Amino acid sequence: MERQRIGFIGYIMRLINWIFILSLLLSYMAQWISPEVFWPISFFGLAYPILVIVNILFLTHWIFRRRKFLIYPLLAIMVGLPMLGRFVQFGSNTEVIDANNNLKIITYNVHVLDYYHQHYGGSGYAGDLILEKMKLENADIYCMQEFYYKGDKGKMLISKYKEYLNTPYTYHKLYGSKNSNIANVIFSKHPIIRNGIVENPKDKYKIPGIFADIELNGSEIRVYSVHLKSIHISGNIDLIDDISNLDTEEGQQKAKDNSIYFINKFKKAFSERSVQISSLRNHIANSPFPVIIAGDFNDTPSSYAYSQLRDGLDDAFVKKGGGFGQTYIGPYPSFRIDNILFDPQFTCTDYNTIKIKLSDHYPISAEFGIY
After folding, report:
1. Most CB atoms closer than 10 Å: which of 6, 245, 252, 270?
2. Is residue 248 assigned to a domain?
3. How many CB atoms lie within 10 A of CB 143?
4. How many structural domains comprise the chain?
């Protein structure tokens, strides 16, 4: 049988596929290379989901075309199978354990209790609805980022949440800027023995997180509530409008300006997060107790931030999650950027994404057997 010729289009398809294969391989490297060393690599990590989907499409194409070239995208995908598991899980059964040894923790970026945004059809304040939903979850520990805290109103809200959640032990810290009105808060049903902040050596206000040493069944664990640097993209940018107007000179210029804007924003966030990650890792390494890290990483599971923080720890979503696990539901596409990581000596028995739209994030919960 005469061998079928590839043809010009075939060579072009192979060239394009090679570009996506190499890009996919670079996306794997993003988890190990600090943005402070080479920040462009972080964009490949951010693009991982798109890159793997495109390579799967090419793989399907080569299968139907009966081309041996299929081995290259297949190998590129296979190399990164552990990464794929960070993005999608097919679910695991909840384990039943002794209630006396059970710990339930929730992390939730509450988006300033929606005070300023009115994104979700409400009056602009969702604090009471959030409180109602969280009370139903009956968790032992709640880690809340971007909690509204301004003067007496902030003190009143902390007290209100403390009472209604039945969490008599709390710790909070303002962060972000000198005149910040947002706090990182840990609410606990169990005694907080000591607490503190994780310092940022380059900016004392942009702390990456707080911690609380919590007494549980006669021993102590350390819980971190973290909020890493946000990208802070303006809500005035309409990507759909930019794309639809590329046929005009004005539209092309606007798209160019917005592209530069996005790159600069991402570059700054990548760099600042790497500094915060370094401080967190050092702090965690010196913890005298097993740790649980909960919060908003503001980066995907293929990122340097996630990989560095997860080093030596397990991921509750990977252990007991299901589906794609999306946690950010704001105006821009996203995947799972909120996480609960834990010391392997704990047993994760359950994980859930709580589908309530009262913030630009979904809260997530995890349950553990503590022995």
Report:
1. 270
2. no
3. 32
4. 2
